Amino acid sequence: MDIEVKFSETRRLYYAKISDGSRYGRKIYGATPKKVKEKLQGFWSMPTKQNRDSTTIGEVLSGFILHMEKRTLGKVDGQKRIRLQSYENYKSYDKALVALSVLSKPLGDYKIQQIDKSFLNEILNALEQKYNRHSAKHKHELFSYFKSAMLWLHKQDRELYPLVDLREIVVKLDKKEAFVPKRLDAQLVLRTIDQVCMEKYAIFSHLCANGLRASEANGLKPSDFDWTNNTVHVQRIVDRSRNVIAIETGYEMPTKTKSSNRKVPLGSELALRIKKFIMVNPNIEWMFQSDQRYDGRPIKQQNLTKSGLHKALKHLKSKGQNVEWKGAMHGLRHYYGSLLLAEAAKLGRNPTWVQKRLGHSNLQTTLGIYSHDIDEDNQELNNEVERRLNG
């Protein structure tokens, strides 16, 4: 928003005049030019019929990021509260898009009225050229953010801004095969974690190897465990910045999806191990909190991984025992999922049983990640199918 700040002799205040479709526009006052600019940063005026032709993409993106900032505090227009971590991502997308060069001109300087199918394809070309070394996912997220901002404007006034071409244009996202560690590698890593890591970090790793996401395991409290049934209730998560996403902190859907709020069965050995850990640490609020300088929140997942999984991998490498491993804790969850799907096939269980255990919102996610990993027992499964077919 490029607006000149002037001084008003009559009111003895600085002001900026904003065109809002009315005859005289709107004035924003402040004691100093800096105060006026601060107020302008939080200002968004919905375009009208009078000024819609002059409204730029940059102005709409500014209004949309303000809308998203409000949604970090609670529901807005019936839309659920968003996480601070998501908002930080959106801010980076916003900054990148406004400055993106499209046909030798910043995207933010174009008028909304110029958006059509041809222009949307030019944006895609610009994203491809600038971020050719980035993943398809990154370009997909940038363009999806742009579409969300424009569709937000469309929702405000469908007649004024029809934007009919938006939904048709997408960034194709190639399906990425999830890394599932080999069974022997996963078993070796878990044994090494038990040998070289403190109990707290070992338990965190084993919870991930029982199907919990790292953010879910880090959000556990001792009260979440049911010792009668040996289950743990997943009902909150902790993001990378240690923000607790939970019902009690004002989030309508604290877990990744509605299906992610679930009770996960634990093996008897792991359940006993966790129970002993809690008995030794009776005053802990969170399963994984700092021993010193506790500030009411769990410790960083990065630290849990560093002192657990990564420490074990480093130890194995020093001993000349290299294992194939990609990423961090999610490999353990994938290992659990592949075992579970193979066992489900043996036991004649429906794949939805695995889906519920893992907290996936749809079955396609479960099958897409793990179905390629159940071939090692192929003949045994064929024999079982034959037995069932022949009665």
Give me some keywords for this one.
single chain, mainly alpha, 15 helices, three-stranded antiparallel β-sheet, hpI Integrase, Chain A, 10 strands
Model description:
- The longest helix has 21 residues, at 136-156.
- The chain has 15 helices and ten strands.
- The protein has helices at residues 33-41, 57-71, 84-99, 117-130, 136-156, 183-196, 199-208, 214-218, 268-280, 301-306, 309-318, 330-347, 351-358, 363-370, 378-389, and strands at residues 5-8, 13-18, 26-30, 101-102, 105-106, 225-226, 231-234, 237-238, 244-245, 262-265.
- It has 391 residues and is mainly alpha-helical.
- The chain has three domains: 1-43, no CATH class; 46-168, no CATH class; 183-334, Intergrase catalytic core (hpI Integrase, Chain A, Orthogonal Bundle).
- Helix 2 (57-71) crosses helix 5, helix 6 (183-196) packs across helix 11 and helix 12 (330-347) runs antiparallel to helix 13 (351-358).
The helix-and-strand class reads mainly alpha
Shape: elongated
Could you give the order of the helices and strands?
Answer: EEEHHHEEHHHHHEEEEEHHHHHHH
Give the amount of beta strand, in percent.
5-15%
Q: How many discrete domains?
A: 3
Q: Averaging pLDDT over every residue, what do you get?
A: 85
**Corresponding CATH superfamily of the largest domain:** Intergrase catalytic core
Alpha carbon gap, first and last residue: 74 Å
Trace the largest sheet across and list its strands: 1-2-3
Radius of gyration over all CA atoms, rounded: 27 Å
CATH architecture of the largest domain: Orthogonal Bundle
Please provide the count of β strands. Answer: 10
Largest sheet: 3 strands, antiparallel
Instruction: Note the total helix count.
Output: 15
Quaternary organization: single chain
Instruction: List the uncertain runs.
Output: 374-378
Q: So what's the CATH class of the largest domain?
A: Mainly Alpha
What fold name stands as the CATH topology of the largest domain? hpI Integrase, Chain A
* Proportion of helical residues: 40-55%
